[in-house]
Amino acid sequence: MPKKPWNGRFSEKTDKIVEDFTSSIDIDKRLYPYDIEGSIAHCRMLAKASIISEEDASSLIEGLGKIKREIDQKNFQFDNSLEDIHMHVETKLVQLAGKAAQKLHTARSRNDQVALDVRMYLRAETINTIKRLVMLKKVIVDLAKNHIDVVLPGYTHLQRAQPVLLSHHLMAYYEMFSRDTDRFRDCLERINVMPLGSAALAGTTYPIDRDYTAKLLDFPKVSANSIDAVSDRDFIIEFLSAASICMVHFSRMSEEFVLWSSSEFGFIELPDSFATGSSIMPQKKNPDVPELVRGKTGRVFGDLMAILTIMKSLPLAYNRDMQEDKAALFGTVDILKDCIEIYIKMIPKLIINQEAMRQAASTGFLNATDMADYLVTRGMPFRQAHSCVGQAVGYALSKKMELHELTLEELKSFSSLINKDIFDVLTTEEMINRRKSTGGTATENVMAAIKKAEKELDEDMKG
Q: Looking at the structure, do residues 319 and 227 belong to the same domain, yes or no?
């Protein structure tokens, strides 16, 4: 069994149950490429500062490269007695490079080492998340562009409210995911800070060059306070917060896909390749993908709550509680990645039932507000117009008719301001295209929004 790095202080071996309990290697082994890359940069800096020799540095860099290849090829043996990925790499490096390997940990601690590894990992994953969100936004915009003439009822309180373009509805999600993208970009700025050189908590006595290490690892900034650098995980909390908000948007979209694909709505049909059946009812086609996305949202919320709870009472600086940050972080990264990627593939294959949407948008008195607006343009105060149209709706309900199905004489019985041009105002197309206010559902507005989004996406993809 390898010796612990703190072996000199202790007179008893660590109990096996303690080794198993404190081990994090099953979780943090995914950090190995960043741990090795960070160690190589640290090694180069130590040689540049003449803290170790160039000969030792070359031997260590060669050994670290061999370790990475061995792990890449899944030929590396992991052992709970070595606790984490840092000790695994260091122990293996001693076997490959001998005593020179014992110099690598000069001027650093596992505290700043793990902070570095997690920041490098999260930087890469945040960049990938942003790229995936850009692709998601593209498929949403493409779907909107290809269905620019499709009308559906807009809802408030899950009650039919006013007709809107399906494209307008879809572009609402484009806006949500755009803000998510911006949040991850903002988060990336605070992730991208180099902590190495903070050591355990107080910095180091060695003449290290932190700016050089940061340059090697492509960090634009170096942490300003050694205690803060090793003891806070707010950059993880911020990422999990952005991920939670993003998953709220996924969950709301998923809820609509579930509702819209039901027989009661019938607005869309999920592709067979993204649905499942029942083990007992042969007719069933279940929306399992959006249901699972909706369900996984709760797990992301839980990961955020876990880190907040872990960090809320910790005194400065590092505490072992912080080892638990990685399970929550990795879990959210995996869930978010899966949800984005599966929706990128599923959304273009949605089958849109245009007739069902249009039929739903033409019933339920969705033109009542437009009738009130019509009266306002003829001089009636809005509250009076609201009451007047409410009476007309009540009358139409008693006749089991829609407002536009009433005769002109019937409509004029509620106000002498009503003329035959009212029927032009009450058509679905007119209701939509009259809403030209900025951000409204008029076709010209939505087409302009799509064009603007396409330009934004082109710039994002070039960047």
A: yes
Enclosing domain of residue 44:
7-106
What single DSSP character describes residue 286?
B
- DSSP secondary structure string for all residues of 149-172: T-EEEEEETTEEEEEEEHHHHHHH
Same domain, 149 and 92: no
| Average pLDDT along the chain | 94
Asked if the structure places residue 339 within a domain, the reply is yes
The residues, ordered by sequence, that sit 6+ positions from 66 with a Cβ below 8 Å of its Cβ are 96
Closest CA to 43 of 88, 101, 123: 101
Whether 47 and 99 share a structural domain: yes
CA 40 to mean position of chain CA atoms: 32
In Å, what is the CA distance from 197 to each residue of 5, 14, 124, 224? 19, 29, 21, 11
Bridge partners for 222 per DSSP? 194
Q: Tell me, what's the pLDDT at 406?
A: 94
Cα-to-chain-centroid distance, residue 21: 32
Q: Per-residue pLDDT for 4 more than 80? A: no
From 11, 50, 157, 279, the catalytic residue: 157
In a domain, 1, yes or no: no
Strands 268-269 and 351-352: antiparallel
Residue 17, class by beta-carbon neighbours within 10 Å (0-12 exposed, 13-18 middle, 19+ buried)? exposed
Task: Pick the catalytic residue from 105, 168, 262, 278.
Answer: 278
Please indicate, yes or no, whether residues 129 and 81 belong to a single structural domain of this protein. Answer: no
User: What single string gives the DSSP state of each residue in 109-155?
Assistant: -HHHHHHHHHHHHHHHHHHHHHHHHHHHHHHHHHHHHHTTT-EEEEE
Per-residue pLDDT reduced to its tens digit, 152-181: 999 999 999 999 999 999 999 999 999 999
* Omega cis (within 30) before 107: no
Residue 278 known to be catalytic:
yes
pLDDT over 90, % of the chain: 89
Active site residue 231: no
Alpha-carbon gap, residue 231 to 81, rounded angstroms: 25
- List 153's β-bridge partners, or say none: 163
